[in-house]
């Protein structure tokens, strides 16, 4: 049965597709002008946006959401300005479309060009944070794509207002306002309707918790760019320098525990643990970290509780850590093979042979030698902005900037060539 | 309920995954040696292979398969030698892995490298042709991937023998024989089991007819590289040169009508048709092409039957063609938007503005100006070999050579960097 939600969502997706055609032939300058216009409009309407945000906050307090959640949801004049500046930054980035990746001429004279072009329509399915509404729209438009936004219901009033303001911003620009579509229905059927709209939507990008991402991956026939669940490991090898190992581990665990590139399990070489356990215990205690360890870890670390099978797969996103003790780098690699999510994995070691094995055999988007996993981030790596961090292998892997929102066309120019 | 087929297929996929780890650390030379060893083994065992093939041919004749099908199925000593030479050619191509696509150093000294690596395990689901068994295996191994092969049941004896011989060929090489897995069960459940094995299989590549491809696309949670259904169009613009237009059209229709880059619909500008209909009619008749036209086409072309709605979407793969008459390039583009399969589309025109619109607005892997659609082919474009032609937009689009079978890793080397 076709529901009202499906019909509405389809109508919006069709509008987005139509607008994407206009978008695809605009110049870089025209797109940049539009991004600046949206940015200005957002800044000019900060009070309106905060008013709408207040409605979400009232609902959120009534629902008793946690503090961290409310913090991500709540906007201020400064945060709204950051949204606008984010758009201006995206405007300043290189246009990822129209780039000739390679060109050659066949013996018969046929000229072949492989050129980057927009994907078309991007479907963004995300949870609470209203900044995603602005960031994703900026990246989509800059790369010549329309966007269909489906945000979480807890930010619905903020998102609705932000989208309204962004569309107003497009009024005197060459980008049609239909290039931004916001799905206002909070019915799950509205989200599900996006999953199979292959004709109108070119790619779905889910951003949020594991269950949201799995729902999209398992049910969508539209191609998906899978983002972000990070069960990241740091392996401390026998030869690791103590201070370096502990400094990296503490940074990766405590700098921002709730993000996907934070470490969740530390794998420690048995010999290293025996030699340096005092320093490790002290650092864990000073930073208030709760340890879930295997048998050897529990014996070595006071206050550690025994890890259950589920702990090895857990993305704690808080000051908890699982500790596994191993006999060598191969055992560490095998543990990561079983429990890792192919996001970011680090080895701390002075043994270059072990480092080489780790780099080659661990299957993940980002591998680190003697550095914190926290660098897996478009901003930190100098991409300028990111639409998410891909944990899949096709199309884009790791932090995804503007190029991830493009595809290619082979353009052939001939003078009557036949085979 | 878990069936016996699922269990067996999973066991094979796990073996393939394990072998892929060994494969991923081999040198280019080691991989090339193994490809040559397989090639030699295939050539040495041509009689065995033909004997197995004869069993398939007997079954095929009993089942009353068409001649074209039997032709694709049947092997000769020469064809078997071509298989071997194909493998030697793949050995001669550049290794697509280990290529540093970009590298840079952050201000804090962290060195970042974006390096190409194998995907891991490739699941190949294909129909009758036994050459795919060899070609796909060669491309997978060269790019450092294991392969799980699921061929059509009509070629089962040929494929089984070919795989057996290829595995024998690996005996004294560094590639483990488990890197090649052949699913011998002809139960559909065995194929379906591959669809959801995300842990063990990194990508599925379906090659064959539309229904096979759709079954994979609609049911797989493993990422899919969608290949090949081509409902290709040639648009003959008002300004098209007559001889060129007709020569290109006839080539695209008659050179090899059964392949995906053959043309299925010609869209003709009304004015051009009125001016040049005699030449067009003569060419169609001389080449024995049956026409399914819209109203104007039926009026203009003797013997044409009226096209049904289904004709516009039909991949005839034979000497039939649909003919649509339009008033301008925009109408042509809109027709392709509705019925095209994003494969190969051509415009024959001397009007560069119309050409530009066509190139920008038509959403397809390959766009042609004044040339035949038949060039959408890895061999013809100089890729050396292809695993299929992608009609999707993510990861790889158009003919897919060795690089399509790789992904990237970010490899970071630090000296204790934290955020």
TrEMBL record, chains A, B:
Catalytic activity: L-glutamate 5-semialdehyde + phosphate + NADP(+) = L-glutamyl 5-phosphate + NADPH + H(+)
Compartments it resides in: Cytoplasm
Taxonomy, superkingdom: Bacteria
Pfam families: Aldedh
Keyword match Cell membrane: no
EC class: oxidoreductase
InterPro entries: Ald_DH/histidinol_DH, Ald_DH_C, Ald_DH_N, Aldehyde_DH_dom, G-glutamylP_reductase_CS, Glu-5-SA_DH, GPR_dom
UniProt main location, coarse: cytoplasm
Listed GO CC annotations: cytoplasm
Record flagged with keyword NADP: yes
Pathway terms, separated by semicolons: Amino-acid biosynthesis; L-proline biosynthesis; L-glutamate 5-semialdehyde from L-glutamate: step 2/2
Family: Belongs to the gamma-glutamyl phosphate reductase family.
Function: Catalyzes the NADPH-dependent reduction of L-glutamate 5-phosphate into L-glutamate 5-semialdehyde and phosphate. The product spontaneously undergoes cyclization to form 1-pyrroline-5-carboxylate.
HAMAP family, per database record: ProA (MF_00412)
Protein's name according to its UniProt entry: Gamma-glutamyl phosphate reductase
Organism of provenance: Pontibacillus chungwhensis BH030062
């Amino acid at each position: 049965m076709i529901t009202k939600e499906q019909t509405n969502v389809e109508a919006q997706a069709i509008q987005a597709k139509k607008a994407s055609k206009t978008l695809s032939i605009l110049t870089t300058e025209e797109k940049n002008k539009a991004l600046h216009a949206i940015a200005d409009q957002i800044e000019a309407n900060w009070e309106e946006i905060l008013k709408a945000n207040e409605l979400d906050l009232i609902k959120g307090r009534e629902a008793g959401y946690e503090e961290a959640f409310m913090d991500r949801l709540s906007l201020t004049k400064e945060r709204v300005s950051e949204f606008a500046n984010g758009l201006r930054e995206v405007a300043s980035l290189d246009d990822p479309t129209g780039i000739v990746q390679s060109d050659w001429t066949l013996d018969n004279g046929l000229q072949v060009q492989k050129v980057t072009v927009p994907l078309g329509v991007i479907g963004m399915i995300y949870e609470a944070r209203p900044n995603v509404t602005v960031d994703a729209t900026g990246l989509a438009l800059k790369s010549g794509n329309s966007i269909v936004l489906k945000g979480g219901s807890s930010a619905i009033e903020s998102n609705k207002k932000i989208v309204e303001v962004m569309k107003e911003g497009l009024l005197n620009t060459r980008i049609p306002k239909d290039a931004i579509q916001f799905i206002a229905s909070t019915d799950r059927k509205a989200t599900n309707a996006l999953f199979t709209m292959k004709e109108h939507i070119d790619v779905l990008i889910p951003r949020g918790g594991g269950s949201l991402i799995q729902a999209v991956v398992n049910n969508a026939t539209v191609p998906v760019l899978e983002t972000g669940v990070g069960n990241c490991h740091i392996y401390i090898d026998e030869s690791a320098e103590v201070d370096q190992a502990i400094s990296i581990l503490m940074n990766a665990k405590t700098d921002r525990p709730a993000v996907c590139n934070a470490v969740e399990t530390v794998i420690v070489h048995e010999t290293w643990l025996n030699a340096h356990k005092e320093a490790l215990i002290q650092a864990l205690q000073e930073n208030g970290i709760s340890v879930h360890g295997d048998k050897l870890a529990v014996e070595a670390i006071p206050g550690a509780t025994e890890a259950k099978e589920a702990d090895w797969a857990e993305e704690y996103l808080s000051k908890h850590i699982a500790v596994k003790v191993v006999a060598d780098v191969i055992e560490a690699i095998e543990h990561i093979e079983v429990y890792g999510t192919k996001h970011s994995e680090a080895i701390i070691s002075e043994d270059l042979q072990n480092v080489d094995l780790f780099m080659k055999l661990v299957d993940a988007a980002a591998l680190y030698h003697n550095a914190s996993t926290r660098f897996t981030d478009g901003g930190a790596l100098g991409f300028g902005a990111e639409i998410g961090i891909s944990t899949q292998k096709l199309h884009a892997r790791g932090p995804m900037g503007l190029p991830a929102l493009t595809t290619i066309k082979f353009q052939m120019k001939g003078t009557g060539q036949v085979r």
